[in-house]
Amino acid sequence: MKLFFSKKRNKLKRYREIAKILTKYGFGMIAEKIDNRSIISKVFIKKSKKYSQKYTRGERIRFTLEELGPTFIKFGQILSTRYDILPNDIVDELSKLQDEITPFDLDTAKNIIKSELGKELEDIFIEFQEKPVATASIGQVYRGVLKNGNKVVIKIQRPNINEVIKQDIDILYTLAKMFDELLKKKIVISARDIVEEFSYFIKKELDYTYEAQNCERFRMYFKNDKRVVIPKIYWEYTTKKVLVMEEIKGTKVSNIDEIDKIGFNKEKLSELGAKIFLEQIFIHGFFHGDPHPGNILILSENKISFIDFGVVGYLDNLTFEFITTLLKASLSRDIDKIVESLNKMNAISDETDEIGLKKELFFIVNHYFNLPINKINFGEVLNEIMAIAYKYKLRMPSQLILLIKSIITIEGTGKKLNPQFNLSKVSKEIVKEITKRKLNPKSITKKIIDTTTENIENILEITNKVNNILYKIDKDKLKIKMEIEGLNRLEKEIYILTNKLSLSLIISSIIVGSSIIIQANTGPQILGMSAFGLIGFVAAGILGVTLIISILLNKRNYK
């Protein structure tokens, strides 16, 4: 009971804290709905005017989220990919969100390792750097050396972060409900759906075994590829709150000075990174969801490494088919086919102006179709598409949004290495290569064998079902259930009619019986008449009135 009230008190305290921060940055109307005590300090109201005049709405939203802490920062980072549901100025600001936070001390890190692995830090590592190499809202990263001499990086989750995020998600659901009521149908995706999606991703991020599995999957895909190195996971030291993986020594793409100092060919590197990323999408259907310069290490001019697999994306067959159809339709300038594809993906909402959408798509397709390939900026095109999605209230699948955001990021990473980098040129080459692979006799044979096997299995399954039906018919065990529209109502009406008819007969019988008893003048007397006969008449009268009311009410319902 004490724990319950303590949690309740903490939640109320958090609501008031959120209300103050919202008021401070000029969102007093929302704050009032959160904290209905709402005697917000005059100091905050005064400050809010200052912030409203000095900063844009996007900046004020960013400052608010940064001050609200880890959960809200992460939520903002998810929203920073959603050009389809938020205006450009807000999304651009959210992409600047920083989750720098005070690091927790070494003793806390040691206690978490002991609690998770059941061993002291010294029993696992011969070296362990006291100062973390990276600090974020969910965890910290350290360098160390295992007892076998292998160099590793260790990710340790922040203490109590799970409870903090769980409480904040509950609050986000409350805020989402409020926004949905406030905005009604102004946005095509409800705020609750966005929080639901965020909740799903953040729960996965709080479990380091998911990241470890993602890393292992990339290792499997690229195990025979000499161009790519993916770190090894040490599963014996990996839990939900601790992740130990091989340390990869390399130069971050973000460190341009170091790359220049070594003398790497930056043009070659930018194309290599983009090629490998596009292969992740079009060959494996599984891609790195955050390929920014800090998450790509350069090992040599011909070899790179991807690190940090907390965010990954995947393409199911439906989404892959959708992308392929879109590309083909864009090349043939078939706008109707593009809109048809969007309809198949359930992307077009009731609020979408299809005529206006077709006009915008026609302009974009024709504009970029006539440009030379080296003049096309992929990021620019995708941003325009997202702006159209927002304008015409299209429902874009979350994995497609992540893919678009990742492509924009990889193009930005390529341009950081080489300002002349062009993703369109690289993508054209990779599509040719993928087409060659698909037309390879071995690939075609494998596809034919797979399709044939699948079809044979389907035929056998259908044959078994048909035999089963025939057997049941032969043994008189087949029952056919039919449902006729309106039959239930007819059945109900017949039931009511039968009851009323039965009641009428009962009333008539009671009246006739009571009359006979009174005529016979037997039994106890009331007012000189048979008591049983009088009781019968009263009962018949009550039942008669009930029947008349029932008939009148029934008649009224049919009007």
Task: Describe the protein in words.
The chain has 559 residues and is α+β, with helices and mostly antiparallel strands. Helix content is 63%, strand content 9%. It contains 22 helices and 13 strands. It has helices spanning 2-24, 28-34, 42-54, 57-68, 70-79, 88-94, 106-117, 121-124, 161-183, 191-205, 208-221, 256-262, 266-284, 317-331, 335-344, 354-369, 378-391, 398-417, 423-439, 441-474, 487-520, 531-557, and strands at 125-128, 134-135, 139-146, 151-157, 228-229, 242-246, 251-252, 286-288, 296-300, 303-306, 312-314, 525-526, 529-530. Strands 1, 2, 3, 4 and 6 form a five-stranded antiparallel β-sheet that branches. The model is unreliable at 37-46 (pLDDT under 50).
Range of helix content? 55-70%
Strand percent estimate: 5-15%
Low-pLDDT residue spans: 37-46
**What's the helix count?**
22
The coarse overall form would be: elongated
Biggest sheet architecture:
5 strands, antiparallel
**Which secondary-structure class do the elements indicate?**
alpha+beta
Q: What keywords describe this structure?
A:
559 residues, alpha+beta, 22 helices, 9% strand
What is the element layout, followed by pairings?
Blueprint: H1 2-24, H2 28-34, H3 42-54, H4 57-68, H5 70-79, H6 88-94, H7 106-117, H8 121-124, E1 125-128, E2 134-135, E3 139-146, E4 151-157, H9 161-183, H10 191-205, H11 208-221, E5 228-229, E6 242-246, E7 251-252, H12 256-262, H13 266-284, E8 286-288, E9 296-300, E10 303-306, E11 312-314, H14 317-331, H15 335-344, H16 354-369, H17 378-391, H18 398-417, H19 423-439, H20 441-474, H21 487-520, E12 525-526, E13 529-530, H22 531-557
Parallel strand pairs: 5-10
Antiparallel strand pairs: 1-3, 2-3, 3-4, 4-6, 7-9, 8-11, 9-10, 12-13
